[in-house]
Write a sequence for this structure.
């Protein structure tokens, strides 16, 4: 059966927003951890949460200062913030309703139920001490959706477009977290390769659910080279840029085989993936980590746009 | 007014079709049944079986209340009803074909010409055109009420885009999940085959341009439409695409949908968009919901539209009162299903009678639906009647009146056990290469004690409807 361009678009964005809801929750988790210690070198940890999520401008238009309660509310509940947990889930669910016919009953129910449960919780204000429980709820519902997706959906183009949305969003998120914290990785006064502020990095790895697996992959010390390798180039790490692009390229290959057409977006994805394969940590640092990440974020966005054009997501395409 | 109860003849005598159910019910603990009702609601909410209420932002998506007590019909009762329905839908299609061609029925003096000419529901664009398979109204929801053991009336024919079939199917699904034992004890005919029949029925009227297996699509106004859930449900169950106006375009004389691989022609479109919005080139030019150019493609044999544009003329309330004549004219036999006696306010004698008996009558707008714009005499206040009388005198052709019927009751579950509530029935009928009637339908129930208004937009609920095999 043919797949409507609008349906492919709906799937893509539904999964982007499901991923985003969870990423927002993880960022808050890390933010709270860091702010709870006085070890932090940065005065406004809450501000960097907003920057990582790419919503600092929207926040500043509405509020002055970075009062934790205000930031938490903005990131969790605020409908003016399109990336808040509530807005993200609402958008995901609206897209889900629109593409209802492309989803299994189980998957639709998992999405709808997550929206119901989380929305009900967020209708009441969330005080700082309640934050961990709410974050946990968001993560658990996300796991329910992803588990249902993995175990009930046919491996066809619907599956591929969903994965493309999820992993493009995830790659963007990991790159942003790194970019906001890159100055911490390479402070002028410390040597690349020397041990870093233990707590900061634990918390950052925690925001991508990777503080345990880091220790598994590397020695226990937090070193810039290892962290960059882990979050960017390690293909075993499910939130690394390289891993995301393994899935993205694979999904596009399936679509290629399915449709027997090779679109320009395939070349774009292959080129980005190749750059991740060909670069060493050392080269990335020498060329400028910030510049590398900036280029990556821009290329990742461009790929998303190309996918939309090549697969006729919108009328007139 | 004493109503006929479909379950209980008296406190200790149960009508035959309900015998086994009643026996089962007596063994249940009503508190735990109450819990089950809560479970059913949670189930509906999780599934997203909701309808949208216009103009109520807070309750944008609401559930239609579901009652656990099934409405049960014996085989013989149903068979007789089904025969009457079949006769009626055949007559409706013949009537439409005649109206858009030679208008023999008007020439024969059976219905006045003024009801057709100048009626908004009559579409000039359909004149002289015969849709593929000669079928005009493919999907019909005949509203039926019961007033006694053998007394059934057709209330309305719903020949445009009847809704509610998804509730029929989901109600059954819910009952089977919650009370599997009931289905082991009673031999209930299935309703979940509806989407399969719908697909077959639509495929059988493919247009001349179709080669090979017909591509079918459901056209929805979008996720904010009150019946969006149903549109998605039907597309999903049939395994066809659910399209919006923005997904399709007229290309090379065909209506084509934009897929990830380019444009693909649609052969049969089950549209859930009203006539007025269907083609902005022909009807309402500001419509964003329709498909520009679809009427031309249709008339040139490039697509089948179900239901055909212009079927509304056959379920117009002004036409309704002529249904007995219409049925007899086209089938050559008296109508097996009765009409509710109807006064046409357009006729002076009737208007006089209606104005004198407002207290006992139900007065309806000829073009209204959903229970709006009507006066229910017995429950109205003097003031309401006076206001209504003025409207009537001003534009009598706009109204018809009917006696207040003593609608049958079926019990619902309440805190103390069972309590009778008024019901109606909407069976779903498919017309194509043959007539397919799904045994059962949607039973709507007025949840408020004594109320006769069963519309979901006004506090009505639904019940699973069983037709027994024997």
């Amino acid at each position: 059966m043919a797949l409507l361009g609008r349906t492919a678009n709906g799937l893509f964005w539904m999964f982007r927003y499901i991923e985003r809801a969870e990423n927002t929750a993880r960022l808050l988790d890390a933010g709270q951890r860091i702010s709870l210690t006085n070890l932090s070198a940065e005065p406004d940890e809450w501000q960097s949460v907003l920057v990582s999520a790419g919503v600092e401008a929207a926040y500043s238009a509405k509020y002055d200062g970075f009062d934790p309660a205000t930031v938490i509310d903005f990131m969790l509940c605020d409908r003016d913030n399109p990336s808040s947990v509530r807005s993200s889930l609402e958008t995901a669910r609206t897209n889900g309703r629109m593409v209802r016919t492309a989803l299994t009953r189980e998957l639709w129910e998992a999405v709808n139920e997550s929206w119901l449960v989380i929305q009900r919780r967020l209708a009441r204000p969330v005080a700082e001490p309640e934050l961990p429980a709410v974050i946990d709820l968001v993560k658990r519902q996300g796991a329910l959706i992803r588990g249902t997706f993995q175990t009930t959906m046919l491996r066809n183009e619907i599956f591929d477009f969903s994965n493309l949305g999820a992993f493009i969003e995830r790659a963007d998120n990991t790159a942003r977290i790194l970019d906001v914290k890159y100055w911490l990785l390479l402070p002028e006064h410390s040597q690349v390769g020397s041990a870093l502020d233990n707590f900061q990095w634990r918390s950052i790895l925690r925001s991508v659910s990777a503080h345990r697996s880091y220790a598994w992959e590397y020695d226990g010390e937090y070193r810039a080279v290892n962290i960059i390798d882990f979050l960017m180039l390690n293909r075993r790490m499910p939130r690394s840029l390289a891993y995301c692009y393994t899935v993205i390229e694979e999904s596009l290959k399936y679509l290629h085989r399915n449709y027997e057409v090779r679109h320009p977006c395939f070349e774009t994805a292959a080129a980005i993936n190749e750059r991740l394969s060909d670069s060493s940590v050392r080269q990335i640092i020498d060329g400028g980590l910030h510049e590398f990440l900036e280029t990556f974020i821009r290329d990742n966005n461009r790929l998303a746009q190309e996918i939309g054009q090549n697969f006729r997501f919108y009328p007139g395409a | 007014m004493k109503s006929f109860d479909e379950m209980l003849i008296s406190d200790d005598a149960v009508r035959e079709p309900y015998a086994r159910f009643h026996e089962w019910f007596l063994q249940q603990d009503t508190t735990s049944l109450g819990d089950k009702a809560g479970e059913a609601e949670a189930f509906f909410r999780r599934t997203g079986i909701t309808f949208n209420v216009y103009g109520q932002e807070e309750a944008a998506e609401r559930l239609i209340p579901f009652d656990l007590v099934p409405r049960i019909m014996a085989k013989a009762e149903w068979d007789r009803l089904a025969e009457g329905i079949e006769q009626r839908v055949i007559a409706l299609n013949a009537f439409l074909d005649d109206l858009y061609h030679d208008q023999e029925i008007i020439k024969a003096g059976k219905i006045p010409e003024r009801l057709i000419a100048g009626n908004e529901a009559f579409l000039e664009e359909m004149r002289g055109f015969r849709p593929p398979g000669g079928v005009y109204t493919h999907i019909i929801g005949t509203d039926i009420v019961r007033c006694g053991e053998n007394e059934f009336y057709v209330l309305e024919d719903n020949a445009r885009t009847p809704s509610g079939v998804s509730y029929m199917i989901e109600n059954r699904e819910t009952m089977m999940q919650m009370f599997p034992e009931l289905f082991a004890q009673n031999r209930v005919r299935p309703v979940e085959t509806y989407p399969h029949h719908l697909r077959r029925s639509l495929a059988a009227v493919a247009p001349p341009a179709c080669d090979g297996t017909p591509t079918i699509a459901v056209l929805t106004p979008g996720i904010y439409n009150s019946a969006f859930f149903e549109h998605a449900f039907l597309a999903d169950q049939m395994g066809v695409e659910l399209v919006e106006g923005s997904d399709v375009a007229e290309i090379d004389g065909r209506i084509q949908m934009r897929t990830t691989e380019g444009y693909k022609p649609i052969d049969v479109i089950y549209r859930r968009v009203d006539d007025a919005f269907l083609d902005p080139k022909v009807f309402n030019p500001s419509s964003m919901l329709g498909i520009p150019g679809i009427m031309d493609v249709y008339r040139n044999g490039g697509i089948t539209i179900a239901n055909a544009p212009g079927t509304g003329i056959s379920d117009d309330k002004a036409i309704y009162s002529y249904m007995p004549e219409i049925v007899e004219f086209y089938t050559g036999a008296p109508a097996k299903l009765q009409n509710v006696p109807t006064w046409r306010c357009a006729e002076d004698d009737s208007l006089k009678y209606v104005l004198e008996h407002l207290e006992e009558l139900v007065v309806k707008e000829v073009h209204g639906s959903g229970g709006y714009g009507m006066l229910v005499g017995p429950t109205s206040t003097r003031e309401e009647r006076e206001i209504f009388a003025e409207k009537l005198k001003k534009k009598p052709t706009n109204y018809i009146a009917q006696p207040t019927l003593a609608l049958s009751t079926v019990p619902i579950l309440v805190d103390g056990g069972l309590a009778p509530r008024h019901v109606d029935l909407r069976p779903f009928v498919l017309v194509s290469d043959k007539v397919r009637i799904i045994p059962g339908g949607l039973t709507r129930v007025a949840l408020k004690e004594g109320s006769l208004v069963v519309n979901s937009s006004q506090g009505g609920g639904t019940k699973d409807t069983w037709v027994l095999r024997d």
Chain A has 15 helices and no strands.
